[in-house]
Amino acid sequence: MAVEGRLVAAAGISRYSLMQDYTVSAGLSPDLLTGEVTDVVRTGSYDGSRGFTVAHFHTAAELAQEGIEAGLNEVRLHGIEGPGWAYVVAAG
To answer: Which candidate in 61, 65, 75, 90 could, as Cys together with 24 as Cys, close a disulfide (CB 3.0–4.6 Å)?
Structure first.
């Protein structure tokens, strides 16, 4: 049953957030960059092997498409947390 005129808020995690996190907290090594990080950027799939849960990281287009496929209309994406958080962590 469709309900018109309602607001749906959802959150997604960028495919690049893993690379940013490893850069400031886990030491982004060449092995991580060419292996795990490249795989996540390419596929979005993360196996939870390094302190985060099993997850799917999105591209903006992919997140919008999921909303459309779920039957939402007028899907709009708004960035809430950008890459600046990594600089705050690195400076701390």
So the answer is: 90
Paired tokens of 53: 């849960």
Q: What are the pLDDT digits (tens) for 26-66? A: 677 888 888 888 999 999 999 988 878 999 999 999 999 99
Pairing outcome for strands 45-46 and 55-56: antiparallel
3-state SS of the chain is CCCCCCCCCCCCCECCHHHHHHHHHHCCCHHHHHHHHHHHHHHCEECCCCCCCCEECECHHHHHHHHHHCCCCCCCCCCCCCCHHHHHHHHC
Nearest to 75 by CA among 55, 61, 91: 61
Other CB atoms within a 10 A radius of the CB of residue 37 amount to 22
